[in-house]
């Protein structure tokens, strides 16, 4: 149970970075009294310290016959306040957030939240009740698997990610040294940018940004940034820009989008289940054919990503419309046949 004295105790306790790193129980009681809180008995402080120890926000050590106390380095601010009141559900939610969204949380924020994540881990680990044990085992019962073929992500320099996140969070200009894909051997080109958002797509992390004075947003891969520096100048975040709209409607992460078209595809074998169970558009219509196949009609964005998705089904899908897309896959099939069956290859 949370008491008013907990926040005062956490406020006066030293951390590993302080010159005086430990404080005895009577010393904590005296410091709390100087803080303005009436403490009649040292045992009251002792009981609250033991409760905070159970919650994982303080540690202790034996020094002769006395116990000395220290606040955990991360247990300050919001973490210190939360430690005395965090339930198992809140701790589990924070644990899941840290596990699955750690890359996307701006580094400036994640540094501030580290103490909160640490408290959540301790709260889960120290749960002695049946409820606590169930919460502690939950992370072993949940996993996320990407449906795409797994690739090794290109490394992103830690300082680059930190600088990009900081500039995005603080709405300050960012100067980067960038190597374009078309010129990998050249010296990095310097760009001054207004960072607007971070997007993780197809194993890559992209910065969506505008160059000052230019109207359109552009994407930059973080792994191609040789350097990044936060400038002192701030900028006004465009009120008419929406990252969600940019991703959903501009479709830049579909890679070379060419506009929406209606496609007609014939699926055979087990490939049928892929579009029956997970439709490719809200207007998808399915017609069942003879010979264990289906015909699918849907309005989709014509893009490289669509090409990659269709290719993944190999001989179990046939493009019927539009004719230009059908011709593209017919030419690819012809080239593939020549690769595998041309004599003397």
Automatic annotation (TrEMBL):
PROSITE patterns: WYL. Residues 260-336 form the WCX domain. Pfam families: WCX (PF25583), WYL (PF13280). This is Uncharacterized protein. It comes from the Bacteria. Residues 160-230 form the WYL domain. InterPro entries: CBASS_pafABC_assoc_protein, WCX_dom, WYL_dom.
